[in-house]
Specification:
- The chain has a 4-stranded antiparallel β-sheet with strand order 2-4-5-6. A two-stranded antiparallel ribbon has the order 1-3.
- The protein has helices spanning about 1-25, 30-35, 45-60, 60-65, 75-80, 90-95, 100-110, 115-120, 165-175, 230-240; strands at about 160, 185, 195, 205-210, 215-220, 240-250.
- It is elongated, with a radius of gyration of 21 Å.
- The protein folds into 2 domains: about 1-80, no CATH class; about 90-250, no CATH class.
- By secondary structure, it is of the alpha+beta class.
- β4 and β5 form a beta hairpin.
- The protein is built from 10 helices and 6 strands, in the order ααααααααβαββββαβ.
């Protein structure tokens, strides 16, 4: 029986790799996603095995930079051995130049990024990685995962002070603020900022709270949905997105 199980695991891995490579090289459509959908993701052993392979891909440096798996020898080796790569959800510039990460984060007075990949795959909890829940929500609503049951703040990981050197942007915010009433908000362009996390396509807004205090806010759902092709769809079947929201008050 044990030999039969080993063979089945090997066949599953070969099917994953083969269907994934077909996607990369454009042979057919959604090969990997179609294969995943034939498996029972409610079976704990199957899910854990898939997550193990998925973490190897998700943490690969070249995959993180490109937004899609690149079948280099390092990636394929990690998939077969179950090892993980260098990416864990940090700013991609820090991924490219890891020796500079501590210096720039300390300069901006922000913390190093938590392990978002392991949170996503439920290998650890947001709280264990230092994230803190926030009760704040976007005034105009936002399509958070799971209706925003759990949302985490970002103040420890983002520094917006570079924004104050951009007088054109500050004038832009002033004009936007003049159109708002307390409790209202509006979408704005991204400011100049430092961050230790990789937010990808985050959403920035400007608002007034109910007391009339102005704030700049960022909202994001951390997942692989913005990745190229069906890679993101496959990853999102195996993990749970992380909701983020933070307000930076402009009169502090």
């Amino acid at each position: 029986m044990s030999c039969w199980k080993v063979v089945m695991k090997e066949v599953s891995l070969m099917s994953l790799v083969n269907s994934g490579l077909k996607d990369v090289f454009g042979i057919g459509e959604k090969n990997l996603l179609s294969y995943i959908e034939t498996l029972d993701l409610n079976d704990q052993e199957t899910k854990e095995q898939l997550v193990k392979y998925a973490r190897s891909v998700a943490t690969d440096k070249l995959t993180a930079v490109a937004g899609s798996p690149l079948p280099g020898t390092g990636l394929l080796q990690n998939i077969y051995t179950g090892d993980t790569g260098e990416y864990y959800g940090q700013n991609l510039s820090h991924l490219r130049q890891p020796n500079n990460m501590e210096y720039y984060n300390n300069l901006a007075n922000i913390k190093n990024a938590p392990n978002l990949v392991d949170i996503f795959f439920e290998k650890t909890t947001p709280e264990a990685e230092g994230l803190t829940k926030t009760s704040l929500r976007p005034s105009q609503g936002y399509p958070f995962y799971n209706e925003g049951e759990n949302v985490y703040g970002l103040k420890d990981y983002i520094d917006i002070s570079p924004m104050y050197n951009n007088y054109q942007y500050l004038d832009y915010l002033d004009k936007k603020l003049s159109t708002l009433n307390p409790g209202e908000g509006t979408v704005v362009d991204k400011p100049n900022y430092n961050m230790s996390v990789d937010l990808g396509e985050s959403n920035w807004s400007l608002g007034l709270d109910l007391q009339g205090n102005p704030y700049l806010a960022v909202a994001d759902i951390w997942d692989f949905g913005g990745s190229t092709g069906t890679f993101g769809s496959v990853m999102d079947k195996l993990g749970k997105p992380i909701n983020f929201y933070e307000r930076f008050y402009l009169n502090e």
